[in-house]
Specification:
Elements lengths: L13 E8 L2 E7 L7 H36 L21
């Protein structure tokens, strides 16, 4: 809130978890702005920050998994026949 123009400095956003979904937990976030029009920029930056943090966490989780799998087998993922999802066929293995 301190870094985005229109945010109220010192306000601590509130998070309220409310629903277990099929692949996650839904929640509401309460942010505070100085003016109504500031809502859009604050919301944009909040979502952008969440997406960035999630991507970093997912990337580090994949790296940890690959390192632990390599240590367990003594071979790199490519040597074990692990194919990145992007390289797989849309219809599964041939």
């Amino acid at each position: 809130m301190n870094e985005v123009e229109g945010g109220v400095p010192g306000f601590e956003p509130l998070i309220r978890y409310h629903t277990f979904a099929e692949s996650g937990i839904n929640f509401s976030v309460i942010l505070r702005t100085r003016e109504v029009v500031g809502k859009y920029l604050i919301t944009h930056e909040f979502i952008r920050g969440c997406r960035s943090a999630t991507a970093k966490r997912a990337s580090s989780s994949r790296s940890r998994f690959e390192r632990s799998a390599s240590a367990a087998t003594g071979r790199a993922p490519a040597e074990r026949g692990v194919v990145p999802a992007a390289a797989r066929s849309r219809h599964g293995p041939a």
